[in-house]
């Protein structure tokens, strides 16, 4: 189905209750609805927004077009949780009904100050010639979850030297000052980030562009985030326009980070190391972080990418968010571990081990469609060790480690209904070791594979048949050993 401009730019309230019910019915009939991931009730979800711990709960929002699986008029949808893994749908949060957000309430962040949650976002507008004009906006959420927008935009136009692609404000506080980092495009069509400062959270002053070593790294940097861990500064962003380079940058757009000395806010200099990709899978974009109640740095991303079709489109919805991950810094690299609260979703623990694995093996009690699986391999004399999951006669998703070419690969070429094949069907990352752990979170239509306690992550949608429930462990070319634990997972 093609969508006209009128259809794409309808607000939530412009659609009748009957139309909404019909769409909901179609969505509910979809075989690929997730069981423990945040997904839209209908329509399209993209970036996570406004992630914050406020008033005894985690509040998270996401970019939402309610009426179908297309990037139409963006609203903010609201979900809450007390443990970051059991989420409750709270409904519409930001509805784009002011002049400065006529073409969408785009991405942004949340920060708690003096008992209120402040949400920052980009109001996107288009003129008659369809030229874009961005406004940076603010809304306040009270303890009663009431949302009040500021009287008007807090920043009304891009600074000189930058195009209309200025969006996705992320706000934090250092000492008594607030800072806002925004994704931008220079007039020469290269990406960068801009920094603003405020004393009172309301009036913002432009400090300048953050000076990095990446002068010409893609044409736009979306969804920036700046954090500090272990006295290092980390700039996370999603650059567009980066060419693939071997196993790197294989998706349509990338998400990654730079680690450096803390940003020097007087010179605007950020002295950093190389750009590193956050995720090695097929579907990961626009992540954002917050601090947990007990001070852990938590990141959540969009398990999807723009400008691609997905098999759920036919059922009137698209995409979900990733599981939350805890970030720690080790040797200038971000280690990403599934949040420990995920243990709250577990039931039915099963275990299996084999000291002499030299073929493909399955076990009658190890199977499923929605589970966590932790597997530790000793490579031994074998050449390849790995796991096939969501298998049936004609379908399987494979993750394996090849000890000969020193690569870990995720292969979704036979996962079920195809998605994004123009960008290839395997993803790989280098690794050299005698042992390897695979920590899988498999949902109805996704997998998140954490390698060696969070050193790498492969995040991907997969669209297998519901009878593809098999799990097989394998070793080729010699003998390996492994032990595994499995739990069923579901939101309570
Ligand atoms: C990233 C992005 C953001 C923008 C939002 C609009 O996926 O393009 O830059 O704010 O999506 O939905």
UniProtKB/TrEMBL annotation:
User: What does the UniProt record say this protein does?
Assistant: Enables the bacterium to metabolize sucrose as a sole carbon source.
Name the top EC class.
Answer: hydrolase
Which controlled-vocabulary keywords does the entry list?
Carbohydrate metabolism, Cytoplasm, Glycosidase, Hydrolase
**What molecular function terms (GO) are annotated for this protein?**
beta-fructofuranosidase activity
Indicate the family of this protein. Answer: Belongs to the glycosyl hydrolase 32 family.
- Subcellular locations according to the entry: Cytoplasm
Tell me what reaction this enzyme catalyses: Hydrolysis of terminal non-reducing beta-D-fructofuranoside residues in beta-D-fructofuranosides
Pathway per the UniProt entry? Glycan biosynthesis; sucrose metabolism
- Glycosyl hydrolase family 32 C-terminal domain: which residues? 341-483
EC numbers: 3.2.1.26
Q: Record keywords: Membrane included?
A: no
Name the UniProt record assigns to this protein: Sucrose-6-phosphate hydrolase
């Amino acid at each position: 189905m093609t969508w006209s401009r009128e259809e794409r730019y309808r607000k939530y309230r412009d659609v009748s209750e009957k139309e909404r019910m019909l769409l909901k019915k179609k969505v509910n009939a979809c075989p690929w609805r997730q069981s423990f991931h945040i997904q839209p009730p209908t329509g399209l979800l993209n970036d996570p927004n406004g992630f914050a711990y406020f008033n005894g709960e985690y509040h998270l929002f996401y970019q939402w077009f309610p009426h179908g699986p297309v990037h139409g008029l963006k609203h903010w949808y609201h979900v809450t949780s007390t443990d970051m893994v059991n989420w409750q749908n709270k409904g519409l949060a930001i509805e784009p009904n002011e002049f400065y957000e006529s073409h969408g309430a785009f991405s942004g962040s949340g920060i708690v100050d003096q008992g209120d949650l402040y949400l920052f976002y980009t109001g996107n507008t288009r003129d008659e010639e369809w030229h874009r004009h961005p406004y940076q906006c603010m809304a306040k959420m009270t303890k009663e979850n009431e949302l009040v927008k500021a009287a008007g935009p807090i920043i009304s136009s891009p600074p000189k030297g930058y195009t209309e692609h200025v969006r996705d404000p992320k706000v934090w506080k250092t000492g008594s000052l607030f800072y806002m980092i925004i994704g931008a495009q220079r007039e020469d069509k290269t990406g960068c980030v801009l920094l603003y400062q405020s004393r009172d959270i309301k009036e913002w002053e432009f400090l300048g562009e953050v000076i990095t070593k990446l002068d010409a790294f893609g044409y736009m940097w979306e969804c920036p985030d700046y954090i500090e861990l272990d006295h290092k500064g980390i700039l996370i962003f999603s650059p567009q326009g980066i060419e693939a380079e071997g196993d790197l940058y294989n998706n349509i757009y990338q998400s990654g980070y730079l680690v450096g000395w803390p940003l020097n806010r007087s010179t605007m200099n950020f002295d950093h190391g190389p750009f590193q990709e956050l995720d090695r899978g097929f579907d990961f974009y626009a992540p954002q972080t917050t601090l947990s109640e007990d001070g852990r740095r938590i990141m959540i991303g969009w398990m999807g990418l723009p400008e691609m079709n997905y098999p759920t489109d036919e059922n009137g919805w698209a995409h979900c968010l990733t599981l939350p991950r805890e970030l720690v810094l080790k040797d200038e690299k971000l280690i990403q571990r599934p949040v420990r609260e995920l243990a709250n979703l577990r039931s039915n623990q099963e275990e299996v081990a084999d000291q002499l694995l030299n073929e493909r093996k399955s076990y009658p009690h190890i199977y499923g469609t929605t589970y966590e699986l932790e597997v530790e391999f000793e490579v031994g004399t074998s050449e390849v060790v790995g796991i096939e999951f969501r298998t049936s006669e004609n379908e399987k998703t494979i993750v394996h480690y090849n000890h000969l070419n020193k690569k870990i690969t995720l292969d979704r070429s036979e996962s079920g209904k195809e998605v994004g094949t123009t960008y290839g069907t395997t993803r790989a990352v280098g690794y050299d070791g005698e042992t390897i752990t695979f920590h899988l979170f498999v949902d109805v239509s996704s997998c998140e594979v954490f390698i060696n306690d969070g050193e790498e992550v492969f995040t991907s949608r997969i669209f297998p048949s519901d009878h593809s429930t098999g799990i097989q462990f394998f070793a080729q070319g010699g003998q390996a050993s492994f032990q595994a634990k499995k739990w069923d997972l579901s939101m309570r």
